[in-house]
Automatic annotation (TrEMBL), chains A, B:
The keyword Transport does not apply. The keyword Protein transport does not apply. One of its GO terms (cellular component) is cytosol. GO terms for molecular function: peptidyl-tRNA hydrolase activity. Its main location: cytoplasm. It is found in: Cytoplasm. It catalyses: an N-acyl-L-alpha-aminoacyl-tRNA + H2O = an N-acyl-L-amino acid + a tRNA + H(+). It is an enzyme of class 3 (hydrolase). This is Peptidyl-tRNA hydrolase.
Amino acid sequence: MKQVIVARADVGMGEGKLAAQVAHASLTAYEHATEQAKREWKQGGQKKVVVKGSSERELHELQEAAKAQGLPTGLVRDAGHTQLEPGTVTALAIGPAGDDAVDRITADLPLY
Amino acid sequence: MKQVIVARADVGMGEGKLAAQVAHASLTAYEHATEQAKREWKQGGQKKVVVKGSSERELHELQEAAKAQGLPTGLVRDAGHTQLEPGTVTALAIGPAGDDAVDRITADLPLY
């Protein structure tokens, strides 16, 4: 079980901002997971991997692909109080789900 | 309502690693919150702020202070598969809780 969070590397987030957006996406996708998936993922140490996305369009496409496979997702739009324009899409979390299911969608993305 | 995540700036985590540790701490503290606190925080946009800690000892002391106030916390030790020594304490999340209650403990820490 794992969760992969795709964060946009093209919008110039600072480190702390990036971390907050990733955490937001992570929790949102987690809340959409089944109770069994939540439990199994936590028992396995809640493995998370952060990878780089390069556009808003890419994140939307990845989310559609994940939803088509029945995987939980969480897409974050920043409120824009700091650093970014309001409504900027910043991060997409996929999972927790089986490693293979998540990898089919995200395996080509570079580590952040 | 907010959650503050104190991440160690003294252990040399890369950006993606930092984000994953912050997300881990965030979810752990969230799971320790009351249902009412979870709901109120999410309705308010699940505000998160990432700040810098400078030692393992500091994170432990902040956790004790938060617990003494009845606030939910989540402390992360890295499994050490990458970048860090196994067992390294990396991040502490405090909240979700009222802004004032969290600020009493974390207001002096610099933004990450």
